[in-house]
Amino acid sequence: MNARTLKIALAASVALNLFAVAAGATLLVGRANVEHRLDAQHRAPRDRSFLTVVEGLDPAVRERVRDTLRASALAAHPDFEETRLKRREAITRARSADFDPARVSALLEQSRVAELRGRARLEADAVSVLATLEPADRAALSEILTRRGRIVVREKADGKAGPERSRAAG
After folding, report:
1. Are 22 and 98 members of one domain?
2. Are 32 and 100 found together in one domain?
3. Are 163 and 151 in contact (CB under 8 A)?
4. What is the full DSSP assignment across 82-103?
5. What pLDDT, on the 0 to 100 scale, is given for residue 115?
6. Same domain for 54 and 102
7. Which residue has the higher pLDDT, 5 or 153?
8. Are residues 79 and 140 in the same domain?
9. Residue ranges of the alpha helices (H) in 42-168?
10. Which of 112-116, 126-130, 152-156 is predicted least confidently?
Protein backbone atom coordinates (compact mmCIF):
# COMPACT_ATOMS: atom_id res chain seq x y z
CA MET A 1 0.00 0.00 0.00
CA ASN A 2 1.29 3.41 -0.86
CA ALA A 3 0.93 6.59 1.19
CA ARG A 4 -2.03 7.87 -0.78
CA THR A 5 -4.05 4.68 -0.21
CA LEU A 6 -3.25 4.81 3.52
CA LYS A 7 -4.42 8.43 3.70
CA ILE A 8 -7.69 7.56 1.96
CA ALA A 9 -8.21 4.56 4.26
CA LEU A 10 -7.46 6.71 7.32
CA ALA A 11 -9.89 9.41 6.18
CA ALA A 12 -12.58 6.81 5.52
CA SER A 13 -11.97 5.23 8.93
CA VAL A 14 -12.18 8.61 10.70
CA ALA A 15 -15.39 9.47 8.82
CA LEU A 16 -16.91 6.11 9.69
CA ASN A 17 -15.96 6.49 13.35
CA LEU A 18 -17.42 10.01 13.48
CA PHE A 19 -20.61 8.68 11.92
CA ALA A 20 -20.77 5.87 14.50
CA VAL A 21 -20.20 8.30 17.40
CA ALA A 22 -22.90 10.66 16.08
CA ALA A 23 -25.33 7.76 15.65
CA GLY A 24 -24.62 6.54 19.19
CA ALA A 25 -25.09 10.01 20.66
CA THR A 26 -28.35 10.43 18.73
CA LEU A 27 -29.55 7.08 20.01
CA LEU A 28 -28.77 7.99 23.62
CA VAL A 29 -30.41 11.41 23.40
CA GLY A 30 -33.44 9.97 21.62
CA ARG A 31 -33.85 7.24 24.22
CA ALA A 32 -33.64 9.80 27.04
CA ASN A 33 -36.31 11.93 25.35
CA VAL A 34 -38.61 8.94 24.85
CA GLU A 35 -38.20 7.89 28.48
CA HIS A 36 -38.89 11.46 29.61
CA ARG A 37 -42.07 11.63 27.50
CA LEU A 38 -43.29 8.26 28.76
CA ASP A 39 -42.62 9.32 32.34
CA ALA A 40 -44.49 12.59 31.75
CA GLN A 41 -47.51 10.71 30.39
CA HIS A 42 -47.84 8.79 33.65
CA ARG A 43 -47.70 11.91 35.80
CA ALA A 44 -50.50 14.27 36.64
CA PRO A 45 -50.83 17.10 34.12
CA ARG A 46 -49.79 19.99 36.37
CA ASP A 47 -47.41 22.19 34.46
CA ARG A 48 -47.86 25.48 36.26
CA SER A 49 -46.43 26.60 39.56
CA PHE A 50 -48.67 26.96 42.60
CA LEU A 51 -48.30 30.75 42.45
CA THR A 52 -49.45 30.81 38.83
CA VAL A 53 -52.50 28.73 39.71
CA VAL A 54 -53.40 31.03 42.62
CA GLU A 55 -52.91 34.22 40.55
CA GLY A 56 -56.17 33.54 38.72
CA LEU A 57 -58.23 33.84 41.92
CA ASP A 58 -60.00 36.91 43.27
CA PRO A 59 -57.46 39.00 45.29
CA ALA A 60 -59.26 38.53 48.62
CA VAL A 61 -59.57 34.78 48.09
CA ARG A 62 -56.00 34.61 46.78
CA GLU A 63 -54.51 35.99 50.00
CA ARG A 64 -56.60 33.69 52.19
CA VAL A 65 -55.64 30.65 50.11
CA ARG A 66 -51.95 31.61 50.12
CA ASP A 67 -51.91 32.22 53.87
CA THR A 68 -53.71 28.97 54.68
CA LEU A 69 -51.59 26.82 52.39
CA ARG A 70 -48.38 28.56 53.52
CA ALA A 71 -49.28 27.74 57.13
CA SER A 72 -49.99 24.16 56.09
CA ALA A 73 -46.63 23.89 54.34
CA LEU A 74 -44.84 25.26 57.39
CA ALA A 75 -46.66 22.77 59.61
CA ALA A 76 -45.69 19.90 57.29
CA HIS A 77 -42.06 21.02 56.95
CA PRO A 78 -40.79 18.99 59.94
CA ASP A 79 -42.25 15.83 58.39
CA PHE A 80 -40.43 16.41 55.11
CA GLU A 81 -37.24 17.36 56.95
CA GLU A 82 -37.48 14.08 58.87
CA THR A 83 -37.97 12.31 55.53
CA ARG A 84 -34.73 13.78 54.18
CA LEU A 85 -32.76 13.10 57.37
CA LYS A 86 -33.87 9.46 57.62
CA ARG A 87 -33.08 8.86 53.95
CA ARG A 88 -29.64 10.47 54.28
CA GLU A 89 -28.93 8.36 57.34
CA ALA A 90 -30.01 5.22 55.45
CA ILE A 91 -27.68 6.11 52.59
CA THR A 92 -24.80 6.75 54.99
CA ARG A 93 -25.37 3.43 56.73
CA ALA A 94 -25.64 1.62 53.40
CA ARG A 95 -22.24 3.02 52.38
CA SER A 96 -20.56 2.17 55.69
CA ALA A 97 -18.44 -0.91 56.32
CA ASP A 98 -20.80 -2.20 59.02
CA PHE A 99 -23.88 -2.34 56.78
CA ASP A 100 -26.99 -3.49 58.63
CA PRO A 101 -29.80 -4.25 56.13
CA ALA A 102 -32.47 -4.32 58.84
CA ARG A 103 -31.49 -0.87 60.13
CA VAL A 104 -31.33 0.62 56.61
CA SER A 105 -34.76 -0.85 55.80
CA ALA A 106 -36.16 0.55 59.06
CA LEU A 107 -34.78 4.02 58.27
CA LEU A 108 -36.27 3.94 54.79
CA GLU A 109 -39.63 2.86 56.23
CA GLN A 110 -39.49 5.72 58.75
CA SER A 111 -38.67 8.09 55.88
CA ARG A 112 -41.71 6.90 53.90
CA VAL A 113 -43.98 7.20 56.93
CA ALA A 114 -42.81 10.77 57.58
CA GLU A 115 -43.33 11.69 53.93
CA LEU A 116 -46.84 10.23 53.91
CA ARG A 117 -47.64 12.08 57.13
CA GLY A 118 -46.51 15.37 55.56
CA ARG A 119 -48.40 14.70 52.33
CA ALA A 120 -51.55 13.79 54.26
CA ARG A 121 -51.35 17.07 56.15
CA LEU A 122 -50.88 19.11 52.97
CA GLU A 123 -53.68 17.30 51.16
CA ALA A 124 -56.12 17.57 54.07
CA ASP A 125 -55.48 21.31 54.36
CA ALA A 126 -55.81 21.73 50.59
CA VAL A 127 -59.17 19.95 50.62
CA SER A 128 -60.29 22.18 53.51
CA VAL A 129 -59.37 25.26 51.48
CA LEU A 130 -61.10 23.90 48.38
CA ALA A 131 -64.28 23.36 50.41
CA THR A 132 -64.46 27.11 51.11
CA LEU A 133 -64.20 28.20 47.46
CA GLU A 134 -66.74 28.89 44.75
CA PRO A 135 -67.03 26.11 42.12
CA ALA A 136 -65.05 28.02 39.46
CA ASP A 137 -62.22 28.84 41.89
CA ARG A 138 -62.29 25.29 43.24
CA ALA A 139 -61.99 23.88 39.72
CA ALA A 140 -59.04 26.15 38.96
CA LEU A 141 -57.27 25.42 42.24
CA SER A 142 -57.93 21.67 42.22
CA GLU A 143 -54.71 21.38 40.23
CA ILE A 144 -52.79 21.66 43.52
CA LEU A 145 -53.87 18.13 44.42
CA THR A 146 -51.63 16.61 41.77
CA ARG A 147 -48.58 14.86 43.17
CA ARG A 148 -45.82 16.78 41.49
CA GLY A 149 -42.69 18.48 42.66
CA ARG A 150 -42.07 22.18 42.34
CA ILE A 151 -42.47 23.48 38.83
CA VAL A 152 -39.97 26.04 37.58
CA VAL A 153 -40.97 27.64 34.30
CA ARG A 154 -38.04 28.58 32.09
CA GLU A 155 -37.86 29.58 28.46
CA LYS A 156 -36.88 26.86 26.01
CA ALA A 157 -34.45 27.43 23.15
CA ASP A 158 -37.36 28.23 20.81
CA GLY A 159 -38.48 31.07 23.10
CA LYS A 160 -41.57 29.30 24.41
CA ALA A 161 -42.00 28.83 28.13
CA GLY A 162 -41.92 25.26 29.28
CA PRO A 163 -42.00 23.55 32.65
CA GLU A 164 -38.92 22.10 34.25
CA ARG A 165 -39.46 19.93 37.25
CA SER A 166 -37.44 20.46 40.38
CA ARG A 167 -37.65 17.41 42.61
CA ALA A 168 -38.89 18.66 45.93
CA ALA A 169 -42.11 17.34 47.22
CA GLY A 170 -43.26 14.89 44.78
Report:
1. no
2. no
3. yes
4. HHHHHHHHHHHHHHSSS--HHH
5. 95
6. yes
7. 5
8. yes
9. 50-55, 59-95, 101-131, 135-141
10. 152-156
